[in-house]
Amino acid sequence: MDAEQLRECGHKMVDFISDYYKSIDTFPVLSQVQPGYLHKLLPDSAPTHPDSLEHLFDDIQAKILPGVTHWQSPNYFAYYPSNSSVAGFMGEMLSAGLNIVGFSWITSPAATELEMVVLDWLGKMLKLPEDFLSAGQGGGVIQGTASEAVLVVLLAARDKFLRKAGKNALEKLVVYASDQTHSALQKACQIGGIHPENCRLLRTDSSTNYALSPDVLNDAILSDIANGLIPFFLCATVGTTSSTAVDPLSALGKIAKTYGIWFHVDAAYAGSACICPEFRHHIDGVEEADSFNMNAHKWLLTNFDCSALWIKDRNALIQSLSTHPEFLKNKASETNLVVDYKDWQIPLGRRFRSLKLWMVLRLYGVENLQCYIRNHINLAKHFEELVAKDSRFEVVTPRIFSLVCFCLLPACKDEAFANKLNHDLLNAVNSTGKAFISHTVLSGKYILRFAVGAPLTEERHVNAAWTVLQEKASALLGTTL
């Protein structure tokens, strides 16, 4: 393909994507297809001869889009947002066009150095301690997901402790977190060889709004020490998956410091809100942490994947993850004057992901990004007020960011019936294709989650989703509005 063919095809693809966004709210938000649908529509082997781009677009329209759940739809309120933007898309396009594999500085110096610069920018937006910036012993790195971030810091912490206690101490290492912590921590423990029985997911309840209690943590640590175990890793969360609970970082950090435990803070979703001064207090205490993570690809208009991880001691990562095969040796790396991000992550290869974050920060600016976050929080507050006005519903946990946890109340007090009622309401709403919400379980109670965060969502979309919820609730309860 020459430059002119690229220009022609590229224009057609941009036109196709532009048309998609122009009509995105006409699609059912949640895909309505059945498992295996695509196998029936596509051939069982690749074509022998080239097809045309026009035929390919026809198939995307007729066969692929019906099987897509539209995360960028203004009617998407499930899980957490995964933001896209023009700036992020253009950065992704440029990254794909350059197609570098920037595992070390020498493979593309700009890829390494831009990543250092933009993560310093973002770290300063979040008012992170200087220890996390690249001028010191720490620095930032873009991982694919928060799951990768927690894995690499857990491995770094594990190896740091094993160097002191000996390789045979692995079976004694203990990890701590609340029972609201993302399941990625459990997977990291499995990969890292931490014994399943030594992964302490400490119970939370409504008395702390499902945040981890420092007293519960301290008691668990003391008990483990008394039993000859080695506490080594604590994961706190700012904005838990189920309900956006915020663990008390300052108190937990002091406990971690007392016992010499690695302290990691996962702010994958809610970290973006902390660029706003009025929400920054939710990460007060981050100065006690050894590592901090947030996902720019969730709520900061940066296309997936772009998970920002900061660490105070880069050598902890490097000692755990670096390899030095002959074919990767080069003068720049051997001078120790450059960063080789291959030593900060699991895979060797890496994309030029900093381009899209750089373009988002440049083309929107901090003030616009703050307004963007505030708008979603205000829309969630509006939805919360709508729920509170309808006596058939209940807001279950305090709204902190842009997630509202709520449920439909049955006439009777039977918990099993209430759970089924809300399960049925979820399915009824999602089957309409007019809105997509998700659920969780808190203290045995089936809860509906309404997460505002799609880039195109406006108040009218929130109101329309609420109308659908009310209509389906009325049908299930056998009442009228």
From TrEMBL:
Pfam families on file: Pyridoxal_deC
Q: Which GO terms describe its cellular component?
A: cytoplasm
Q: Which GO terms describe its molecular function?
A: carboxy-lyase activity; pyridoxal phosphate binding
Positions carrying N6-(pyridoxal phosphate)lysine: K298
Write down the PROSITE patterns for this protein, in alphabetical order.
DDC_GAD_HDC_YDC
The biological process GO terms on file are: amino acid metabolic process; carboxylic acid metabolic process
What cofactor is needed? pyridoxal 5'-phosphate
Keyword Lyase attributed: yes
UniProt keywords, alphabetically: Decarboxylase, Lyase, Pyridoxal phosphate
Annotated InterPro entries:
Aromatic_deC, PyrdxlP-dep_de-COase, PyrdxlP-dep_Trfase, PyrdxlP-dep_Trfase_major, PyrdxlP-dep_Trfase_small, Pyridoxal-P_BS
This protein's source sits in the domain of life called: Eukaryota
Q: Which family does it belong to?
A: Belongs to the group II decarboxylase family.
What protein name applies here?
Answer: Tyrosine decarboxylase
Provenance organism = Ficus carica (Common fig)
